Amino acid sequence: MMLMMTCLIRSPFNRRGNKAYESSINDSDISFVSSGRPSIDRIFPSLYNIDDLDSNSSISNGHPTGRLSSEYTGRLSSEYDARSSFASSYSGGGPKSIDLSSPLDNYSFSSQGSNGPSSIRLSDATDEVESEMRRLKLELKQTMEMYSSACKEALTAKQKAIELQRWKSEEEKKLEEAREGEGAAMAMVEMEQEKCKAALKAAEASQRIATLEAQKRMYVERKSEMEASQRKKTEDSYTTARYRRYSIEEIEEATNRFSDSLKIGEGGYGPVFKCELDHTQVAIKVLKSDAAQGRQQFNQEVEVLSCIRHPNMVLLLGACPEYGCIVYEYMANGSLDDCLFRRGKQPPLPWQLRFQIAAEIATGLLFLHQTKPEPIVHRDLKPGNILLDRNYVSKIGDVGLARLVPPSVQDTVTQYRMTSTAGTFCYIDPEYQQTGMLGIKSDIYSLGIMLLQVITAKPPMGLTHHVGRSIEKGTFPDMLDPAVQDWPMEHTLHFAKLCLQCAEMRRKDRPDLGKVVLPELNKLRIFAEENMPMMMFRGGAAAFNPRSNNNYFINSSTSSTNQVRHFM
User: Fold this and answer.
1) Beta bridge partner(s), residue 63
2) Nearest-angstrom CA–CA distance, 280 and 479
3) What's the 3-state SS for 24-50?
4) Is residue 374 within 8 Å of residue 380, measured between CB atoms?
5) Confidence of residue 504 (pLDDT cuts 50, 70, 90)
6) Beta-carbon count within 10 A of 333 CB
7) How far apart are CA 464 and CA 448, in angstroms?
8) Is the pLDDT of residue 221 over 80?
9) How do strand 416-417 and strand 437-438 relate by DSSP bridges?
10) SS3 labels along 134-167
């Protein structure tokens, strides 16, 4: 019976001549992991129950810490009791006992007789079981690690698959957007092509229109040239008829071959001689041979003066075009500049006469601005170009720099671009000097500076600034000409403020000559005539006859305008 129990416990793989046990279960087979049962069930299904194993047990001192199942322990105890009783009766020895209440590694086999071979065989079987348990636990640990790694890899693969799916959807969305963008771009390209075709058609049409316009313009220019040539011929014939042509011999005889004793002045244009022609005192201005632009100014002055007649414009009597000689009426009292600064020991002009001269200058200037069909801008208005006859009637002269402004720009604000400015420094319109834009209000600025000189008898440099400051500080009387003692301060101050308005830096701030300036100056002239004494100069000077007809200048301006319309 003991032999049978021993054969039941001993492993058949340790017998000599038997092949070593090879498990039919593949090491890589992890099907048992998912089933929840260890591989020891396949080898010893009746010995162990894997559910009762402690998964957290450890091997210490070379003995396993696992416990036998209760089912196996009970069966083994019953079988062993039977066999033990049988063996004891058979062998006659003392009874043997196994303490099954202790773990397997603490099993103790005792015998009242001598130690038999059954104790050694049971110990060997226990070692083999423990060795197999250790191996199986190691395999289980490795398998669990492999399973954990596989799970992690599966999770990573799943995440990558999700990311790939997301990336795929995004790429599909981008591809769809790209297709939509491509479709929109193709539509825009088609639209641009249509626009380009339309633009090409419009450009071709514009080119055809431009060609037609160029042909029309060429035709109009040729026609204008022909008309201008014809008009010039007509004007030349009219000009010849409007003034007397003197020969150079007549001029030389009258001036005693340009004697210095007859010279009464000289300017940039040339010398001026006083003489007699046709039993009339005249002034002859002779063009210098080296005068810059002298010929152009000569032709301009002859053309302008031969077309106009006005009491406040110098009268042209004749000319010698071949030698640049112009014959004027003689002005006995010289220029306004000479009278204001008392050159040649002339007596000072009374304030009554100064107000009259200012109104006459404005009247003559308005006549130039109202000429038809083209207004005339003087461009060089200054005291040196205002001449006084024997009765101190003022007349505008030296119109060589005058400019005929085209009719297309002669409306409310007459402006005409010039390539270069002309005139005298301190009298030139600042806007005209900066921009080259010429207008009738360019003469208003020059008029304002000149009229300030009429009451102050001071140089033009900075005159507007000094007069304005004196009015602000209340020292305006100190700015007036000290040669006149009886200035009517209220009227003179009004006169000065009007002049300052005319001399504004900006053209749009200057008043209108015909609507504002001339009416105010006519009021001052009437006031001056009402307060004019009978004898203006005493002691050797000729008596002055006052001019009482106030409407003479306005009526004569209208009649002269009609004359200019007839000539032009």
Assistant:
1) 60
2) 42
3) CCCCCCCHHHHHCCCCHHHHCCCCCCH
4) no
5) very high
6) 17
7) 9
8) yes
9) antiparallel
10) HHHHHHHHHHHHHHHHHHHHHHHHHHHHHHHHHH
Which of 259, 263, 260 shows the shortest CA–CA distance to 272? 263
Residues 6+ apart with CB under 8 A from 115: none
Compute the distance between CA of residue 451 and CA of residue 507 in angstroms, rounded to an integer. Answer: 18
Instruction: Say which amino acid occupies 311.
Output: P
329 has which bridge partners? 282
The vertex-143 CA angle with 138 and 147, nearest 5°, equals 150
In whole angstroms, how far apart are CA 417 and each of 354, 436, 448, 507?
34, 5, 23, 15
Query: In 10 A of CB 291, how many CB atoms?
Result: 17
506 pLDDT more than 70:
yes
Which residues does 243 contact at the CB level (< 8 Å), separation at least 6? 302, 305, 306, 316, 317, 318, 319
List, by residue number, the catalytic residues.
380
Q: Are strands 280-286 and 325-329 parallel, antiparallel or unpaired?
A: antiparallel
Mean pLDDT of the chain: 75
d(CA 560, CA 536): 30
For 521, the enclosing helix (H) or strand (E) is helix 518-530
Distance CA 394, CA 388 (A): 5
End-to-end CA distance of the chain: 166
Question: In the structure encoding, which two tokens stand for residue 304, read together?
Answer: 């302008």
DSSP H or E stretch at residue 263: strand 263-266
Please give the structure tokens belonging to residue 324. 């640049």
Q: What is the DSSP letter of 21?
A: P
Q: Considering only CA atoms, which of 128, 131, 136, 134 is closest in space to residue 39?
A: 136
Distance CA 540, CA 347 (A): 11
CATH code 1.10.510.10 region(s) in the chain: 333-567
Q: Tokens standing for 342?
A: 């008392």
Long-range contacts of 59-63 (CB under 8 A, 24+ apart): 59/134, 59/137, 63/105, 63/130
Q: From the options 3.30.2010.10, 3.30.230.10, 3.40.30.10, 3.30.200.20, give the CATH code of 243-330.
A: 3.30.200.20
Question: Please, which contacts does 70-79 make with residues 24 or more away whose CB atoms are closer than 8 Å?
Answer: 72/46, 72/47, 72/48, 73/100, 76/100, 79/5
User: Among the listed ranges 295-304, 312-321, 353-362, which one has the minimum average pLDDT value?
Assistant: 295-304
- Whether residue 94 contacts residue 115, with contact meaning beta carbons closer than 8 Å, is answered with no
Among the listed residues 54, 63, 37, the one whose alpha carbon sits nearest the alpha carbon of residue 131: 63
At position 339, the amino acid (one-letter code) is C
Domain with CATH 3.30.200.20 in the chain: 243-330
Q: Which pLDDT value is given to residue 293?
A: 60
**Distant-in-sequence, close-in-space partners of 103: CB < 8 Å, separation ≥ 6:** 67, 68
The pTM of this model reads 0.54
Max avg pLDDT among 93-107, 268-282, 524-538: 268-282
Query: Token match 């002691």: residue?
Result: 539
Q: Domain 333-567 carries which CATH code?
A: 1.10.510.10
Region for 232 from its dihedrals, namely left if φ exceeds 0, alpha if ψ lies in -120 to 50, beta otherwise: alpha
Given this model, what pLDDT does residue 294 score?
67
